[in-house]
Input
Amino acid sequence: NLSQKRNKPNTGGNLLGLAVRMALSLGLHRELPAWNISHLQREMRRRVWWGLYMFDSGASTTFGRPILLPAGDAMDVKSVLNVNDEQLTPRTVEMPDESALPTRYSGIKAQCDFHVHSNHISNRLLSPCGVSPEEAMRLNQSLESWAQTLPGYFAFSGEPAAADDWYLFTRARLWWRFWNLQIILFRQLVLRRAMKRTQDSTLAATDVDNRCRDVAVHAASATIVSI
Output
């Protein structure tokens, strides 16, 4: 994170790569159910893995680099639990039920789920040929469908579920990530269309062109208003 803020993305990427390789060596991407460790230790492993997964996915998307994290059958570790710290301690003998309210682990749980469902889009956008307006709309529909699965306290519309600073920031950051990917998805289409219009002012926009523009403008506007 410090390397990124100092405008050294290559150094930051190298450090993240080392961290991912170390995590794989430790088997953090695997659940390892036969391993006799406490519930808290197992949950700590999940938190470390998904924290790294979230950071690496976000950095790769931001800097336009391939996301090299394992997926599918190569990774079976469960998501972190949405629980308060007092519900899971070294003395816990039974896994607690997840809270219906936001906790300090709600953000990592939701953002990692977002990356699991959207990393293929980030990698697809690295193709030299780009994406067509029709494909972009299909990919955006998958993003919109995912957003519908979020718990109510993370919904974009409506009043916040709490006033705590950590919750408000976590909720906003999740949507900044969501809108950022929408902007990246449609940016090339909007810019390409604008360049064509400078060459031919009579060029008419199609319905799908207008819808692509509307999604991009809405994502950018929502980000600015939120910040």
Remarks:
- The chain is about 60% helix and 0% strand.
